DNA sequence: CTGTCAAGACACAACGTCTCGTCTTGTGTA
DNA sequence: TACACAAGACGAGACGTTGTGTCTTGACAG
C-alpha cells in the first residue's frame, strides 16, 4: 500500500508482540544480530505488519525503550546538590552497565550515526528532556549561590555526563561509580564560587 | 586456503589500491554504504585478495587511518599549558568536523561496538598513545605547580576530550572551538591550586 | 466491505567461500 | 651469477546463504 495505514484499526496485540520480541532478541544477542525477519518470526507476525508501522529496527527499539523510560523522568531535589547529582548519575551507571540496556543503548547510538530520524528522535525523547532537568536542578543551585553565576550550566552537564558515554562507547575503561565520584569532584571544584 | 598467507609475497600495489579505495569510497558515501564488493571493484582487485589480508572493512579503514595518523603524534610543550591544550584540541575539532574523517571516525567507533578486535586496535594504536601524551604534558604542569598535586590526570583528560566525542556521536550540538574554550576554562578552574 | 492481519514468495544486494587461469616471486640448482 | 620452476598471490567472477523491502494471498475483524 502506498497509502498511510489507519491507526484506528491497528492490532494492539501485534504491536506489543513486536516491541517485546525486539527487546527480548536484543538482550539475547547483539544489536547487530537483530533482524526484521528475526523479530517477525519471534513475534509471530508478518513482516509487512512491521514495515507498515516502523521504518527500521532502530525505530522499534526506540519506541520500546521510550515506553519504559517514560517513568522516573524527574530529577530529585533534596537540597543537597552533590547527593542529587550522585544519585542520578549512579542510576545512569547502572543502566550503562546493564547488559541488556547496554546492548540496545549502544545500538541506538550506532543507528543514529546513519539515520537522522533516529538521531532526532533519540535526542528529543530521551536525551534532551533529561539534560533540561539537570540544568534546572543546577540553576536552582546557582541561584542559591552554590555555583558561580558566570558558569554556563549546559557545559557543566556535558562535562558531567560525557565521560560516561565516552567510556561506554570507546571502552577505554569500565563505566563505574568511582568514575562518577571523580568527575563530580573535579567539576564541582571548578564551578564553586 | 586455510593456511596463513605469506607476507613476503604480498603485492604492495594491491594493498595500496585497497586502502586508497576504502578511504575514497568512505568520503564519497557513508560508512554504512561501504561494502567489500564496492572496495574490490573500485580498487580493481579480487574479493579474495581483500579477505586474505583483512578480516573486515573496519580493519581496512583502521589500517588506512593509522598509516596517516602516525605523523604528528607529539604533544607540544611551549611552556604555556593553556595554549598547548587549546592547540591540540582545536586540531581534534578540525578532524571531527572534517566530513571525510568524521565519516570514518564515526564508522570505526560504530564497528568497535560489535568487533572487540577493532575496539582493541582502535584503543592501542590511536586513542591510548595520545591520551598518554596528554597525561605527560599535564604531569609536567603538575610538577610545575600549575595543577593541584591531588588531581587525577587521567580523569582530567577524559573531562577535556569526552565532551567532543559526546557531541560528535550524539549530535546534540556541533563540535566547535567555542566548546573547547568553555571546557578548558571550566576544567582549568577546577584543577588549579 | 474496507483494511489489517499472518504467511510466505519474490527480486535484489552483500556476504564470505570457492574455483579458475594468469602472473609474480623467492629459492634451489647449475 | 644466472636461471628455471614450484608455491602461491593475483583478478575475475560463480556460488549458496542471509537479510532486505515489496507484493500477493486468503482469513478475519472494525
Automatic annotation (TrEMBL), chains A, B:
InterPro entries: Homeodomain-like_sf, HTH-type_TetR-like_transc_reg, HTH_TetR, Tet_transcr_reg_TetR-rel_C_sf, TetR_C. It holds the Pfam family TetR_C_11. Signal peptide: none annotated. The lineage of its organism: Bacteria, Bacillati, Actinomycetota, Actinomycetes, Propionibacteriales. This is TetR/AcrR family transcriptional regulator. Keywords: DNA-binding, Transcription, Transcription regulation. The keyword Calcium does not apply. It comes from the Bacteria. It comes from Kribbella karoonensis. Residues 35-54 bind DNA. Residues 12-72 form the HTH tetR-type domain. SUPFAM superfamilies: Homeodomain-like, Tetracyclin repressor-like, C-terminal domain.
Amino acid at each position: 500500500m502506498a497509502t498511510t495505514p489507519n491507526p484506528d484499526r491497528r492490532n494492539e496485540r501485534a504491536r506489543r508482540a513486536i516491541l517485546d520480541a525486539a527487546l527480548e532478541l536484543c538482550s539475547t544477542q547483539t544489536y547487530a544480530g537483530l533482524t526484521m525477519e528475526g523479530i517477525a518470526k519471534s513475534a509471530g507476525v508478518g513482516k509487512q505488519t512491521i514495515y507498515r508501522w516502523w521504518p527500521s529496527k532502530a525505530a522499534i527499539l526506540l519506541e520500546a525503550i521510550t515506553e519504559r523510560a517514560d517513568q522516573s523522568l524527574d530529577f530529585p531535589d533534596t537540597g543537597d546538590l552533590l547527593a542529587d547529582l550522585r544519585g542520578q548519575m549512579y542510576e545512569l551507571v547502572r543502566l550503562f552497565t546493564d547488559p541488556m540496556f547496554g546492548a540496545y543503548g549502544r545500538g541506538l547510538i550506532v543507528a543514529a550515526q546513519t539515520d537522522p530520524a533516529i538521531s532526532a528522535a533519540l535526542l528529543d525523547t530521551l536525551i534532551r528532556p533529561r539534560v533540561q532537568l539537570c540544568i534546572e536542578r543546577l540553576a536552582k543551585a546557582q541561584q542559591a549561590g552554590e555555583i558561580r553565576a558566570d558558569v554556563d550550566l549546559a557545559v557543566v552537564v556535558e562535562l558531567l555526563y560525557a565521560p560516561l558515554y565516552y567510556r561506554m562507547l570507546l571502552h577505554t575503561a569500565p563505566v563505574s561509580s568511582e568514575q562518577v565520584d571523580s568527575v563530580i569532584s573535579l567539576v564541582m571544584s571548578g564551578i564553586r564560587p
